[in-house]
Amino acid sequence: VQLQAFGGGLVQAGGSLRLSCAASGRPLRSYTVAWFRQAPGKEREVVAGMRWSGSTFYSDSVKGRFTMSRDNAKNTVHLQMNSLKPEDTAVYFCGVEIQRSVALWTATSYDFWGQGTLVTVSS
């Protein structure tokens, strides 16, 4: 699976951004896809994910503000980020897990990664 993440940028606190992750090679609807972020000096953490079934999961830090969706026709997933905070500043990555792991909150469970897109939220 080849993944391309895009949509990052600079936004003021309280603003919104929509990230996208376009895939080629395999249909995303068959796998778990997650968005991770990594801030300088910190570990990569899951912020949102969607299982092959369509069910979603979110970290407590973004729940209620971020929404993940999937466009099967375009083989793309999106992350709508609202009410952004300075602490959301990070490089955001999309990852695909193909082995039906139960450890979906763990970066090492994911088999394919996009290149990352930078989100900067100014205060």
Descriptive notes:
- By secondary structure, the chain is an all-beta fold.
- 0% of the residues lie in helices and 50% in strands.
- The protein is built from no helices and eleven strands.
- The strands form two sheets. Strands 2, 4, 5, 6, 9, 10 and 11 form a seven-stranded mixed sheet that branches. Strands 1-3-8-7 form a four-stranded antiparallel sheet, with no helix packed on it.
- The model has no long low-confidence stretch (mean pLDDT 96).
How many H/I helices? 0
Rg on CA atoms, Å: 13 Å
Number of strands: 11
The N- and C-terminal alpha carbons lie at a distance of 37 Å
Structure classification: mainly beta
Question: Concise description?
Answer:
With 123 residues, this protein is mainly beta. It contains no helices and eleven strands. The protein starts with a strand and ends with a strand.
What are its keywords?
123 residues, mainly beta, seven-stranded mixed sheet, four-stranded antiparallel sheet, globular
